[in-house]
Structure formats: structure tokens, C-alpha cells
Design brief:
alpha+beta; disordered N terminus; 382 residues; four-stranded antiparallel beta sheet; Jelly Rolls
Length: 382
């Protein structure tokens, strides 16, 4: 008896762990972003696996699918339907740069957790007095939505244009590795506990918990969506307002040069300044809101090895700062646009530099965009 109770407590704790932590389940850390920027396809596999293992809404859905399945053939059938579903949208949506607000996608995914638990409790028959929808069709359809959530998050990272499909496939392979690993542990634990006479009570408690947790996640995702769409209504302190004020003040500053750069869809560009050693300059650049991967870096004068020094690298819709050079040479930005639409960048600079395109600026509306060299391995090595 005591042994069975302890087993029940352990399984409930494991189920709870699926929902403990951050409320927004698909977020990738800056360390993960940096890793996927610097690595190749093997790194995409690793990021995919770790992302699935930390994606507790996906794991909760899989947990609900297998909860009452006892035959290996049935488990394979339903998990395969889910895998095919999320693989289709992950690959197609990412390859075609189809993006949906990730808070809304995650809200629907949270509801899918509620659905699978409600089905496990036989809620359609008990409380709605209707026949439950076809389980296979629903799992496949909900898998499509889960894949859209994975794709939306993956597209927030810089992806290689030349190896885009392999990057996506590698990430998906990692997702499946993570899913299989988690599934194996779930099956072992459930199979061991299924023999207990407390399993029926535990199953009711666990699935009720999934419904409550899924509902909580849904509300959290919708709250996040409200923050994104109505950001001005949620300013709770002066810091964000002060940051916006400082940014606006920087836009009005006495800049030496104001330059417009257009980056075509699914493309990249660089812009460089010539500076002597010890020279300083300040800068501000911004888009209309579209986030771009950027790399602020320098290349020593006369170097033919392809070496460059990165000073700042991130994904953002704007950046401002300054730099005192440690060597003479070219210094500037690399931008990567992963969206389906061209993006315009406004770049403002001042300081001790020379513009390589200064003669062209007076003649062209878009004077400064130059193709990025193949030696820029922070992207080309992907």
C-alpha cells in the first residue's frame, strides 16, 4: 500500500514538472541562439532535442496520448500520427517563412493538452453526452498546430539560406530524438505503475491536473499576447518608458550620417566603415519592428586570412552603442533577414571614420548595401 502511494506521488510530481518553470514554453535562451548561429546541422539536432525535452506542453500532450495505451502497436500508431503532423508544418512553414504569433499558437497548444486529458476522462460521453471525435484524426490535426509552434520559434533564429532545408530537417530530427527519449521514460513509469490498484485513481487525478494546467497555460499565453499587441497599456514602471525616451532622443541626436539599407527577403547584407586604430564612433540602427540577426564586427587592414573580430552579436529590431577600435581596418554590421519580405534599416552614425561609399551616397537612394563576404562564417558555416 505504502509503495503504491509513493509511486503515485512520484508520477504526480513528474507530471507537475511538465508545467513548472516559465509560462511560455517554446522560448529559446540566448545561449541556444548563439549555439545555433555558430554550429552546423549537428548543432541544430542538439538544439531540437533539448528544446523538445524542455517543451513541457508538447510532453504533456504526448503523456496524455499514451496514458491508456497498452499495446506497442497502438502507441506507435498514435505517436506516428502526431509526429507526421508536427513534422509537416514545421518543415513547410519554416521553409516558406510562414509565421503566426507564437503566443496564440501556444495558447491553442495549451488547449490541446486540455483536450487530450478530457478525452482520457471520457468527458465527451460522461458530461457532453456525445461521441468523442476520431482520436487519430484529432491527434494528427493537433500535431499540425504543435508543428506550427515549433516553426514559429525556429524562425526567430538565423537560418542558412543555402542549407535551409537541411537546417530544418536537422532540427526536426532533434525534436524526434527528444520526443522518443521522453516517451521511453514515460512508458516505463506508467507501465510500472499500471499494475497498482491505485492506477485508476491516479489516472483521474493526473488527467484532471492536465486540464487545469492546460487552462492555466492558455490564460498565460493570452496574457502574453495582450502584452505584445497592447504593449503601451502594460507599462508598470518607468524603466521601459525611460528606455523608449532615450531611444527617441538618440534618433534626434546630431548624427554625421543617416543611411537607409534595404535587405531583400531571405537575404543578408553588410555595411562597413573605415577606421584607424584607436578611432571611435557611435551608431544607432533600427527597423520598423522586424527582428534581424546582426553581427557588429571588424576586419584588420591588410588581412587576407578571412579573420574578423566580433564585438556584438544578437537578434533584434534595433541597436545602439559605440566602439573604440583596437586595430585599423573596416568595422561594421552584418544583417540577416529570415522573413519573406524586404526590411529597411535606418542607420545613423557619427565619429572618426570614412565611408567607403561616400561618393555613391549623393547619387543613389540605397547607396550602401554590399553583399556579405563568404568569409563571414558566423552564418555561412551553418
Amino acid at each position: 500500500m505504502l509503495s503504491a502511494i509513493k509511486q503515485s506521488q512520484w508520477l504526480l510530481a513528474i507530471a507537475a514538472l511538465l508545467f513548472v518553470g516559465q509560462a511560455f514554453s517554446h522560448g529559446m535562451s540566448e545561449a541556444e541562439k548563439q549555439a545555433i548561429i555558430d554550429g552546423g546541422n549537428l548543432r541544430y539536432i542538439w538544439i531540437g532535442a533539448t528544446h523538445m525535452l524542455s517543451g513541457y506542453d508538447h510532453l504533456a500532450f504526448v503523456f496524455g496520448i499514451i496514458f491508456f495505451l497498452t499495446k506497442f502497436r497502438e502507441i506507435v500508431k498514435y505517436i506516428t500520427a502526431f509526429t507526421i503532423g508536427h513534422s509537416i508544418t514545421l518543415i513547410i512553414a519554416t521553409f516558406n517563412a510562414v509565421q503566426v504569433n507564437y503566443f496564440l499558437v501556444d495558447a491553442v497548444i495549451a488547449l490541446s493538452v486540455c483536450y487530450i486529458a478530457f478525452h482520457n476522462l471520457d468527458g465527451f460521453k460522461k458530461w457532453l453526452n456525445i461521441k468523442a471525435p476520431n482520436m487519430m484524426a484529432m491527434i494528427f490535426g493537433l500535431g499540425l498546430i504543435h508543428g506550427l509552434g515549433l516553426s514559429t520559434r525556429l524562425q526567430q533564429l538565423p537560418l542558412s539560406e543555402d542549407n535551409l532545408l537541411m537546417n530544418i530537417i536537422s532540427f526536426n530530427v532533434g525534436i524526434e530524438i527528444g520526443q522518443i527519449s521522453a516517451l521511453t521514460i514515460m512508458l516505463i513509469l506508467i507501465a510500472a505503475f499500471r499494475k497498482s490498484h491505485l492506477f485508476k485513481s491516479f489516472s483521474k487525478a493526473a488527467n484532471t491536473f492536465l486540464i487545469i494546467a492546460g487552462g492555466y497555460l492558455f490564460l498565460m499565453q493570452m496574457h502574453g499576447y495582450e502584452h505584445v499587441t497592447n504593449a503601451g497599456e502594460f507599462v508598470s514602471n518607468t524603466e521601459p518608458a525611460q528606455q523608449e525616451k532615450d531611444f527617441n532622443a538618440a534618433q534626434q541626436s546630431d548624427w554625421k550620417d543617416i543611411i537607409t539599407i534595404r535587405i531583400p527577403a531571405r537575404s543578408d547584407k553588410e555595411y562597413k566603415l573605415h577606421l584607424d586604430k584607436g578611432a571611435t564612433f557611435e551608431y544607432l540602427w533600427y527597423t520598423s519592428g522586424t527582428e534581424l540577426f546582426f553581427d557588429l564586427h571588424g576586419e584588420p587592414k591588410g588581412d587576407t586570412s578571412g579573420y574578423f573580430k566580433t564585438f556584438k552579436k544578437a537578434t533584434s529590431s534595433h541597436d545602439r552603442g559605440g566602439l573604440t577600435t583596437i586595430f585599423a581596418g573596416t568595422h561594421g554590421w552584418y544583417w540577416k533577414n529570415n522573413t519573406q519580405s524586404p526590411v529597411d534599416i535606418t542607420l545613423k552614425t557619427k565619429g572618426e571614420y570614412q565611408r567607403p561609399d561616400s561618393d555613391k551616397v549623393m547619387q543613389q537612394a540605397e547607396p550602401l548595401a554590399t553583399p556579405s563576404p563568404t568569409t563571414h562564417d558566423s552564418i555561412d558555416s551553418l
